[in-house]
Fold this sequence. Notes:
- Two copies of one chain form a homodimer.
- Chain A has 371 residues and is α+β, with helices and mostly antiparallel strands.
- Chain A has two domains: 4-71 and 341-370, Hypothetical Oxidoreductase Yiak, Chain: A, domain 1; 79-189 and 237-293, Ribosomal Protein S8, Chain: A, domain 1.
- Helix content of chain A is 39%, strand content 16%.
- The first copy, chain A, is built from eleven helices and twelve strands.
- In chain A, the strands form three sheets. Chain A has a seven-stranded mixed beta sheet with strand order 2-3-4-10-5-6-7, sandwiched between helices. A three-stranded antiparallel beta sheet of chain A has the order 11-1-12. In chain A, strands 8-9 form a two-stranded antiparallel sheet.
- At the A-B interface, strand 4, strand 6, strand 7, helix 8 and strand 10 of A face strand 4, strand 6, strand 7, helix 8 and strand 10 of B.
Amino acid sequence: xxxxxxxxxxxxxxxxxxxxxxxxxxxxxxxxxxxxxxxxxxxxxxxxxxxxxxxxxxxxxxxxxxxxxxxxxxxxxxxxxxxxxxxxxxxxxxxxxxxxxxxxxxxxxxxxxxxxxxxxxxxxxxxxxxxxxxxxxxxxxxxxxxxxxxxxxxxxxxxxxxxxxxxxxxxxxxxxxxxxxxxxxxxxxxxxxxxxxxxxxxxxxxxxxxxxxxxxxxxxxxxxxxxxxxxxxxxxxxxxxxxxxxxxxxxxxxxxxxxxxxxxxxxxxxxxxxxxxxxxxxxxxxxxxxxxxxxxxxxxxxxxxxxxxxxxxxxxxxxxxxxxxxxxxxxxxxxxxxxxxxxxxxxxxxxxxxxxxxxxxxxxxxxxxxx
Amino acid sequence: xxxxxxxxxxxxxxxxxxxxxxxxxxxxxxxxxxxxxxxxxxxxxxxxxxxxxxxxxxxxxxxxxxxxxxxxxxxxxxxxxxxxxxxxxxxxxxxxxxxxxxxxxxxxxxxxxxxxxxxxxxxxxxxxxxxxxxxxxxxxxxxxxxxxxxxxxxxxxxxxxxxxxxxxxxxxxxxxxxxxxxxxxxxxxxxxxxxxxxxxxxxxxxxxxxxxxxxxxxxxxxxxxxxxxxxxxxxxxxxxxxxxxxxxxxxxxxxxxxxxxxxxxxxxxxxxxxxxxxxxxxxxxxxxxxxxxxxxxxxxxxxxxxxxxxxxxxxxxxxxxxxxxxxxxxxxxxxxxxxxxxxxxxxxxxxxxxxxxxxxxxxxxxxxxxx
Lengths: 371, 371
């Protein structure tokens, strides 16, 4: 086990299949259709499996509450509202983000298989979990894929401490002979989920991650998370931080163009106009470029594999470590957790049991075992 | 004038039109066709006009020498070698990068105008200046555009100090009612050109920008530049720096996926395989998404303008400053330099005069005047 999996807060384990079943059941009982619940659960548990707990079942409560109180429309069916062949827009009708984006990815793959390239955008959507799950789905079909989304405004562009952008991931994936090469990261230096996790683990914040209401670096994870949720003057900083010196203008630009793709281009809400009047109104963006339109797809996958291998074979700066490429850690953690179970923090477990009680199903803690 | 334009190293000014004429003439006399020389000069001078001197005429010597000694093929005409309608590949036949990429952009715009979206890649190309010039060209035709390139390996992915990626820009542009919104930045925290400029200006390096042969932060700009050119163990660091804490893995991923798009996907060389045997073999990537395929293009441009305005109107962290969006500074500097002349460092001027002597045209210094 890695250090991560031996943290004292992680005393309980649960089999991934059990966690997926519970999550599906919770969403279904709350009101979601079975297929929508299943894909949403799969994406959430994929995050927990891959070590991205910030985007995993720790978020389930918000989903279940949203479906129960009607902020998320559980009977929505994504509808194609613009179809120009290679360029389409879906209206998610305020349904769960995961099924809407999954529909968009499958449509994008279909269209790019025919014409070589496609873009599918989604409007009126909700939180959709880890972008990587969707990009990898397209990459497995032979696509170079790019996926992004906007989100609740939490990131201040360089020069202000007003949160204007979501943590808007930039996410790319491509096929390799071994599977996929995929990167998925927030355009902020860290995500709010990461701070929530930090708070759960009682670990310290770093300067350059977030600003407080006074425009100075925020230092307390719990305070910052609360401040971000309640929009009390806190803001995450873009990749590169708050100054030009280390490239804060670059992270800001990544966040801005994600808003642009998912907002004005998708016909969705953007920046501070999301999450108004009980509807998120988020947008997602999917690009697929079919490697088969460029040459022999197997040869291209093999060359991507070779590029990955050469990077991995670089001389490490720290002896006894190795150079990692995107996905290496996630794949390792996933394998381990599939074999040994998914560690769940006590606080998350309590949350899941509260959800079970809320929707009237068996508590999840009965399915866990000691690590 | 801004602080930038009052630096003591900048004692001479030259009219932009004169500088463009000189640059065109130098390239033409060296052996380039007139049109190729003209577009190359336009892109180089656009960088000087916009305050990106690192990518301007300071690089002309390498171009002229390359054309003269045959490392760059001055008679090359870019050829479409793959045409799948919306997805094309050009072979630049080792010609100048600017005309090849310009041809690619025009083809991408044409195809996206028909089908809504297109990708055009270039292989066997050379250095092509600032990506922003090309992305803006597409944006003015109503496109959301993405342009990237690979380049001589100088950036070490996180975890190693072996340079494996070029400074591979990520560059996006989109139409607005006022013109374009465009970001163009290296996937390293700083570019080598920036360090060359720092050296010329005798300004200090920051930690997190580059590593020395011992794997420790490099501190001397001149040494680092020489070490990068001679491949003596120096490396630039990716956006986010050398550690995960501030997102070095994110900058690494941006650089890696640029290599992937411009290398394996374009059928060009990548990473350490570029610049071997007297040929750069670089690849470029252009994506165009036609905003007219998504709705009323004027309405979309207006919404992008509104997004830009809202960001610009954010409360500044430092009173008496204002929040800038990508392109604001560049536009301001361009206006000023178009009116007052382009400042040229004495050292660059000496270089340009040496080029003039080399190709047998009048020295540029006779065209400059005191600032």
